[in-house]
Amino acid sequence: MSPPVRRGGFTLIELLVVVAIIAVLVGLLLPAVQKVRGAAARTKCLNNLKQLGVALHNYHDANGKLPSARDAQRISALVPLSPYFEHENVRTLMYTFPATYSGVTYTALPVPWDGLYEPYLIRYQAKLLVCPAGPIRGSDRSTPAGVAFIAPTSYLVSWGDAITGTGQTGGNRNRGLFQNTPVSFRDVADGTSTTIAMSETAFRPGPVDGTVLGNAAQNVTTLKANPSDCLLQADGMFYKPTASLNTYGSGTRWTDGSPEFTGFNTVLPPNRPRCYTGGSNSDLVFTAQSRHTGGVNVLFADGHVAFVEDRIDAGNQAAPEPTTGPSPYGVWGGLGTRSGGEVVPAF
What we know:
Elements lengths: L11 H52 L14 H4 L6 H7 L4 E3 L2 E3 L32 E5 L2 E5 L4 E4 L37 E5 L33 E2 L2 E2 L19 H4 E2 L10 E2 L7 E2 L9 E6 L4 E5 L20 H7 L11
Parallel strand pairs: 5-9
Antiparallel strand pairs: 1-2, 3-4, 5-6, 6-12, 7-8, 10-11, 12-13
């Protein structure tokens, strides 16, 4: 009688060994894949800012000045810039009157948070304004038909090291490249290659979640006298339970010129906490934030872009808000001012 033929195959132990080897390989490769993906997102984000720099210069060539950070209607600088970054059709639609949306007839541009006005909404999102690193989130507005989302922006304009005037009341310190009044490149006494024009913001993925990235503490009344009090609102990358967090989010309305939506200042270093002196519409300390590891992308007034580490020198963060002269907030503050007279070292 012939002996039984043994069929080839894996034993259970061999199969477990193979699975273990695959798991080890995946564990080794995953960080490398994530690193490559993060580098690609950072490069794409830098390229977006570069294109916005071209748009800024083309706008300046055509108008002899830059747009104001917000106009009398609180419309952001990004709206008049939009024809210069291939978003002209949406801007034309935005200013075409009369127009009827959701049963409402408009004869003039509404407030920038009007959730019924379709040209503001996320369906008309400008792709150039979205950084691929991390989630994005538009401002949710209640309407009779449900919730509408205003298109967001990952990119913000620089108010320099000014705090006063970033809210809806109070004087205008006029320290950065963007303020309530338009600025020309000839006003940049510090040099366009060392003056920040724009940077970026990070979004929280959903409702207020307590993380430093994408949230902001309110009612920090001492900010102008001591901006470092904002740092006391957080422990690491999370706000303390005692911090009162605002429900709005930076970048969630590309149309809104208030700095809480489309601006930042160079007082605290990048990726640090953000704070209001009161609630929404009050003066604030909002630094640039991103989900890139170790810093933020920055556009300078001459059009070049660079990655700025979040450990950049920020001087005396407990110093009161300046009114004239050099910024007390180190290299970061000096890069924010357009005519502070600082000598900015390599960073």
